[in-house]
Design a protein that fits this description.
- The chain is of the alpha+beta class.
- The protein has one domain: Nuclear Transport Factor 2, Chain: A (Roll).
- 43% of the residues lie in helices and 31% in strands.
- It contains four helices and five strands, in the order ααααβββββ.
- It has helices spanning 3-49, 54-57, 63-69, 72-81, and strands at residues 87-90, 94-102, 108-120, 123-134, 137-146.
- Strands 1, 2, 3, 4 and 5 form a five-stranded antiparallel beta sheet that branches.
- The longest helix has 47 residues, at 3-49.
């Protein structure tokens, strides 16, 4: 009496598990494409990003991002990031997502989002970066740092 509904439920569950496995494998292949390409760029340039020296960061930024960081508010945010202190180490980057597009007056581009856990003198920070393809390399379009270290009052405040 319940054999047929149980077979259907079991078959449905099996189909769902196979579908999730296929999607998971596909995402890992998709992510590894971007990780393989961008990891050398991130390893080379993250020390400049977290050096807290804007002159070292500036050439890595897109023109739009550079304009934002050059404002008074952008400089305040970058100075706030510097409360983390000296970088001690970085974990491997994690791929978050990517999208491709074509601007009317420019070449096709890709926007790729990564997350990296950074270990600093004042504590850990989750760094979120948006990279934009620039020819055969990348430029940084967005930087966000989240850390409990920003909640603690500093001695210089």
């Amino acid at each position: 009496m319940f054999k047929k509904p149980l077979k259907l439920a079991g078959s449905f569950a099996l189909i769902l598990m196979v579908a999730f496995a296929v999607v998971g494998i596909g995402f890992n292949l998709y992510a590894s494409k971007y990780l393989d390409a961008a990891t050398p760029y991130l390893e080379q340039n993250m020390p400049a990003v977290v050096s807290w020296d804007f002159e070292r960061l500036k050439p890595l930024l897109t023109p739009e991002s550079r304009a934002v960081f050059e404002t008074e508010q952008g400089q305040r945010v970058y100075k706030m990031f510097s409360k983390l202190g000296r970088l001690t180490s970085l974990d491997a980057p994690k791929f978050l997502n990517a999208k491709a597009g074509v601007a009317l007056d420019k070449e096709p581009y890709e926007v790729i989002n990564f997350s990296i856990l950074g270990h600093f003198e004042a504590g850990d920070a989750e760094i979120t970066l948006t990279l934009v393809t620039a020819g055969d390399s990348y430029q940084i379009d967005y930087i966000n740092m989240g850390s409990d270290a920003f909640l603690a009052p500093s001695l210089s405040d």
